[in-house]
Specification:
With about 450 residues, the chain is an alpha/beta fold. The chain contains 16 helices and 16 strands. It has helices spanning about 15-30, 45-50, 55-65, 80-85, 95-105, 185-200, 215-240, 250-260, 270-285, 310-315, 325-345, 345-365, 370-375, 390-395, 410-420, 450-460; strands at about 10-15, 40-45, 70, 105-110, 130-135, 140-145, 150-155, 165-170, 175-180, 205-210, 245-250, 265, 290-295, 300-305, 420-425, 435-440. A hairpin with a 5-residue loop joins strand 7 (about 150-155) and strand 8 (about 165-170). The longest helix is centred in the middle third of the chain and has 24 residues, at about 215-240. About 45% of the residues are buried. Magnesium ion binds near residues 273 and 277.
Length: about 450
């Protein structure tokens, strides 16, 4: 079997910490054996961002504008502690913030559902997709630490020299102040992206802000959405049998928790950031949430919704066992490859992306999962495996399968062997002793020589 060929390179944005480790594994074990992978590589790992004075982030965003499809690994957004840890020249801005601002996109985040992993919120039966406005607000803020007494003002100087001035606060002592902005044009493309996405997946669209408190800023969002809906989408929504619904963010939160799911929830930048973590966690795991940035002119950047999983990375550095779930990162790759296939008319590449996702889901549904999923899934992985979980853990979490102790490497191994036609479960509790279960090759057709190589590698690892 020949490797699947690509036409246009993917823009590959490498990242930091635990996800950087997963990134290399996913490429090497799950993609490169099958696809003649073409990427234009940008190292967005913090050391290289610092070396290039963050120019690499800008270059990678420009490359995305040029080629149209990017896949991004999670990256560190430095704070004061990171400046010391990495000895940085500067506290660089969030790469995601920079890329989003340059692409002016909307981020759609949807949970990956697997049977057996039940949402924490019992009423949820279908995925909730969060559409996060990806421009402006607090992510492009300007802020000052106020040293002492004085007046903070908001001043706008028009191009014609005309001034609008408002007092923010008369400080009597130290404090903080921040200025944020947004653009009618960006809110407009956000609204279009949401309405179009809702039509394409035939799901209701909800939108929420805090317009009762922010009577000018948030109200502008509400008005723009309503004007665009009334003028351009009302009829199309009626024909599609879906609705557009605006409500206050706090009301939305209460309704979401009581809902059955199966809709798109459009959120302002910060709300989307926070709510997508909440929704992802309640659906099973932050590690099971996909994220795609869609720009108004049709550029796509795929990533996992979670961060670099620092806590696991520090354990990994100490040689301790980790249980980092690669699913969302795998889906970032499959999403990007599928989109590339779609744009370049490469049905084989699109089929590969489908198979990779199916293999991932099948692997989990067959009982191989990392700790966070297993803890939520409870008896999800009771596939006839004998438990090797300490009794106390089982009692506390209701987990019946040893595979919740799978270290990260073994998750990849399980994959390797699944594609080779045999599934191994590696249990850290019983000292890495393997059990094998034969399963049919359903997901990937792997050539024999690669299968043999993988088996040899597996023996080496064991
Ligand atoms: P995080 O990396 O998402 O991790 C938070 C916690 O969620 C982890 O400690 C872990 O919980 C769980 N988790 C997340 N992803 C997981 C996975 N794949 N498998 C298993 N568990 C997973 O968020 P953070 O710790 O707040 O941030 C770490 C770094 O990532 C920061 O430097 C931040 O700037 C950056 N970040 C980047 C992005 C991005 O590039 N898109 C997004 C968010 C954060 P347990 O510890 O309980 O196991
Ligand atoms: Mg977040």
């Amino acid at each position: 079997m020949e490797k699947i060929q690509m036409k246009t390179p993917l823009v590959e944005m490498d990242g930091d910490e635990m996800t950087r480790i997963l990134w290399a594994d996913i490429k090497q074990l799950l993609i490169e054996p099958f696809v003649d992978l073409k990427t234009e590589y940008y190292d967005l790992g913090l050391p290289h961002r610092d070396e290039t004075r963050d120019q690499v982030t800008i270059d990678s965003a420009n490359a995305t504008k040029k080629y149209g499809v990017a896949v991004k690994c999670a990256t560190i957004t430095p704070n004061a502690q990171r400046v010391t840890e990495y000895n940085l020249h500067e506290m660089w801005k969030s790469p995601n913030g920079t890329i989003r601002a340059m692409l002016d996109g909307t981020v759609f985040r949807a949970p990956i559902l697997v049977s057996g992993v039940r949402p924490t919120v019992r009423t949820w039966q279908q995925p909730i997709t969060i559409a996060r406005h990806a421009y402006g607000d607090v992510y492009r803020n300007s802020e000052i630490r106020i040293p002492g007494a004085g007046k903070a003002e908001l001043v706008f100087t028009g191009a014609d020299g005309q001034e609008i001035r408002q007092t923010i606060f008369d400080f009597k002592g130290p404090g903080v102040v921040q200025g944020i902005h947004n653009l009618d044009a960006s809110i407009t493309s956000f609204a279009h992206a949401c309405f179009q996405y809702a039509l394409s997946v035939k799901q209701d669209l909800w939108f929420s802000t805090k317009d009762t408190i922010s009577k000018t800023y948030d109200h502008r969002f509400k008005d723009i959405f309503q004007e665009i809906f009334d003028a351009q989408y009302k009829e199309k929504f009626e024909q599609a049998g879906i609705t557009y619904f605006y409500t206050l963010i706090d009301d939305a939160v209460a309704r979401v928790v009581r809902s059955k799911g199966g809709f798109i929830w459009a959120c302002k930048n910060y709300d989307g950031d926070v709510m997508s973590d909440m929704v992802a966690t309640a659906f099973g795991s932050l590690a099971m949430m996909t994220s795609v940035l869609v720009s108004p002119d049709g550029k796509f950047e795929y990533e996992a919704a979670h961060g670099t999983v620092t806590r696991h990375y520090y354990k990994y550095l100490k040689g301790e066992e980790t249980s980092t779930n690669p699913v969302a990162t795998i889906f970032a790759w499959s999403g990007a490859l599928r989109k590339r296939g779609e744009l370049d008319h490469l049905p084989d590449l699109m089929a590969f992306a489908d198979k990779l996702e199916k293999a991932t889901i099948d692997t989990i549904e067959s009982g191989v999962m990392t700790r966070p999923c297993a803890a939520v899934g409870g008896d999800a992985c009771a596939g006839g495996q004998q438990p090797h979980v300490p009794r106390s853990y089982r009692v506390a979490h209701g987990v019946r399968c040893c595979s919740d102790f799978l270290p990260i490497a073994s998750f990849a191994d399980a994959f390797l062997l699944l594609t080779g036609g045999i599934r191994y479960l590696v249990c850290a509790e019983c000292d890495g002793r393997m059990k094998n279960v034969s399963v049919p090759i359903t997901a990937l057709d792997m050539p024999l020589h690669i299968r043999k190589e993988n088996m040899a590698k597996k023996r080496e690892l064991a």
